[in-house]
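User: These chains co-purify. Model them together.
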Amino acid sequence: MRWWFIAGVIGILLILLGLAMAVPLLVSLYYHDPAQETFLKSLGISMAAGLTLVILSKRKKRDDYINQKEGMTTVALAWTAIGLFGALPFYFSPEFITFTDAFFESVSGFTTTGSSVMTDIEAAAPSLLFWRSFIQWLGGMGIIVLSIAILPFLGVGGIQLYKAEVPSPVPDKLTPRLSDSAKILWVVYAVLTLLLIIFLLGGGMSLFEAACHAFTTMPTGGFSTRNASIAHFNSAFFDYTLIVFMVLAGINFTLHFQLLRGKTMIFWEDAECRFFLLFTLAMTLFMTWDLHGSVYQTFSEAFRFASFQVVSILTTTGFATADYETFPGLSRMILFFCMFVGASAGSTGGGIKCSRIIVCCKYVYRELFKIIHPRSISHVKVNAMVISNDVLRSIMAFITLYMAVFVLASLMLGVMGLDMMTAFGAVASCLGNIGPGFGSVGPAENFAHLPAAAKWLLSFCMLLGRLELYTLIILIVPEFWRK
Amino acid sequence: MRWWFIAGVIGILLILLGLAMAVPLLVSLYYHDPAQETFLKSLGISMAAGLTLVILSKRKKRDDYINQKEGMTTVALAWTAIGLFGALPFYFSPEFITFTDAFFESVSGFTTTGSSVMTDIEAAAPSLLFWRSFIQWLGGMGIIVLSIAILPFLGVGGIQLYKAEVPSPVPDKLTPRLSDSAKILWVVYAVLTLLLIIFLLGGGMSLFEAACHAFTTMPTGGFSTRNASIAHFNSAFFDYTLIVFMVLAGINFTLHFQLLRGKTMIFWEDAECRFFLLFTLAMTLFMTWDLHGSVYQTFSEAFRFASFQVVSILTTTGFATADYETFPGLSRMILFFCMFVGASAGSTGGGIKCSRIIVCCKYVYRELFKIIHPRSISHVKVNAMVISNDVLRSIMAFITLYMAVFVLASLMLGVMGLDMMTAFGAVASCLGNIGPGFGSVGPAENFAHLPAAAKWLLSFCMLLGRLELYTLIILIVPEFWRK
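Assistant: Joint model of the two components:
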């Protein structure tokens, strides 16, 4: 393990983070809000720490080759460091008393979770709210991916970093050059964000709120500038606009790129995207049926609120237009199970991901088929491609590990005194990078009242979910450190 | 598919069932209770139906070879038929109004689940309570296994029937002859039951109650003759006696046989048994820690109630000495997760089973190991034996299917109007053949208030769990019926 190299990469990222803090500083200057000092201090500390690391690491030549172990360690430490330094603006703000809270909010932002410990969001300085949204946007497409896009020299050996941050089950590189792929992804992402800002402005939102919400919609983040989240606006136009963009954010971004290149039917041709869209529709109709007559009197109302909640949870955004804790059992169960499914691989969404669910279903069906035809040889195929046994094993292990983390983290929250439903909801939500949970962390509540230990554990779950388990878990396997 | 053959086997089983009904008839005569007519009618109908099937099937020669498809179909239909005809004594009793309720109680009995729809157990005729316990005892070691033991001619071609009823992940035959193996299992089972009766008599129970409770402990069934279950007796001696015998019932019965043959350390040498014992101990201590000071003031009291509840749920018995719904979140979560783990393969317990959990953990660890050493070739071993890839795949698919059934059945209960916790608890409990669940079907409640559709669905879940999914699920795969 070449620690100096890792320190150098983290140093670079912290410098970039410091530069990113200049944006809310400008917002602060524009609004004359009291957070200027906050951002100046945070910017200074981050830059200083970053420069120190870069200088200490004495990177005289650019080392091209990064092995997998170093890649995983770097990404795990980088995300932790960015969570820590990104917490500074929160920590220096009057809304946050403990560093635990600031770190939770920061990690919740960068991992695009959207769980919050802020009890009165609207009372905070506009620049702080902007920072809250901006870090979701930065985290959404991937911090490492962003770095590779803007610092092409990282891309040369950065494939290991890339794979550790975006461990999609079936990776598809867009172009032979990694830095070009990263650039394309970020451009598509930025264009969609811009488009959403225009739509929200058109619907009557202020530029500030339009930008903040677009910055948290496209990364499927879910932070809002309002205490009541999207329910505050109570507008069908905003609801449906956000539904469309949440769905777009939940689709593999390489498909958007292919769509732009003329493959007009790609959303339907791609097995994962087709599953994601049909599943979203099915769950929406299922929940509409449940809510119609029980909670909402008209079909159109039931459909509007059902579709928003389903899309918000399934894409792992976490916006709310209703308190689903007051919904009947069926609707609550639909949302609970949707938390595990998640969005598409290669999207900004979290959860287990649709492609893994598809493979898992086909894996089970193949087993049933084998009982009926014991001598048959059958393969699991997705998009007419045979999934290799290695990938199959890895996907089955991933899903099992995901459930194991859910069980262990829930029990640990139980040790800290949380009740069963709150523990289940909090872990499912944070591990899936969603936002609201169930019980005392439902959409009408927040995470402020949890004990400090629970906040650290849930922050860890968010990182686990964002880096898709292996990158972080592998570091706590003793075998990793042997020899 | 040779339907006449299947009908013949089911006919034989119904005749045996009719003969079994003579036992509660004798109990009824002894107690002069009003259920004599009930059992006479039920006996007559079962025998008549059985004889009709046997005669109609015109089995002139004994067909030795049964293929796997026929085996699975036979076992699935046989268990359904036995559930239906075993329900007759309940249906003819004043305590049961609908056939739905009678069928639910009967299936809950034969599958050794122990969920009940009886609201006042103590008011029922002794012979009916005896029947309730007796069917658990008959179902515990397997109805097919019993038939093979007492009708050796079934054993010749009956290996497919045996495998369909006892689809243990790593099957171990005791002797070359199946009927001998079946006999050994039943003798061990009967001896342990007798031993438990003696212990309970020694503790001061009446012979009737001792027999009834022994008949529901050894098959990890969980029906009691008392409304308050084992809490009624409020005796540390009974609690610990039952704990010991529940644990024995949760151990692979081939190990008991090996122990009798002099392998004194076999419980420790066997990987699954060691895991089962250590896991039980760990969960007990974990829960004792949670309950001590919060619910129970002394350590010994906390340990007594924690160990009973953990053992009862983990062995999938379902007896209760406390209402765990009033326990803190951690204890409830421990019990909820234990519902999925279950007991050992080859025991009378249900759930996913320890051996599958062990293999699953090793499967995931191997995947982590492979990330660290990509070129390594490593096997999953249990008891120093390499688990083949076929078995591995089958186990991973089993666990996934188990969770999928849990999700689907919970949603279907949601459609019927049940709340989330009740739906989760009811399905986990019935699928694991446990008994009590959570929410409105907790240990202090019963299943009487559920809608009829929910009772049929849960009965199906019990059968699914008892026959370990594949035997029943395969019948609803269209591919099974093709050609």
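The mean pLDDT of chain A is 91.
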